[in-house]
């Protein structure tokens, strides 16, 4: 009898070892987990718009009356999920001080809403995080009259409707004079936190830089719909 139980123990241990070393053996364990990679939408600076405005003497918008009062839309990975409002953020090592300053201001802007809580700190398992980075990308199509200033987005791991977001926000240092700006930092951090593009020119999430760095009512409503639902 004793020898038999030893054999069973050996078999059980082997199974446990195989399963833990190779999770594919039990695919059902992962069926409730949904993972998305960072969805990136470039933030643009329109050379044409600024030129037009200079030539015609017009300032911002001629259709300001159509400004939407509705909430800024949400990025798909954070729709219909439950998520903590607390984030740990850190900068990649090569991020220069000027960019750190812009993102730190953006962090304060979002913290001031009271809707989210961004705390300096390294990425931790099962906690929301934001990584700030820089990159270089030259204009590809000169006829498009636009320059990419930055990009960012959420990247969620959803387990039974509970999401953990590893967001990213970055500035394009090929155009430092245009990209290292509070309006660009607040836009990209907005993406990392789950806000999508808005058609409202007063929103920081308008897809073309308007120099806007304070959140609109719609932006705050959008944040609330993610973190206070
Ligand atoms: Zn954008």
UniProtKB/TrEMBL annotation:
UniProtKB keywords: Hydrolase, Metal-binding, Metalloprotease, Protease, Zinc
Native species: Companilactobacillus alimentarius DSM 20249
Highest rank taxon of the organism: Bacteria
GO molecular function: metalloendopeptidase activity; zinc ion binding
Name the UniProt record assigns to this protein: Peptidase metallopeptidase domain-containing protein
SMART domains: ZnMc
Domain Peptidase metallopeptidase: 79-229
CDD domains documented for this protein: ZnMc_MMP_like
A biological process from GO: proteolysis
Gene Ontology cellular component list: extracellular matrix
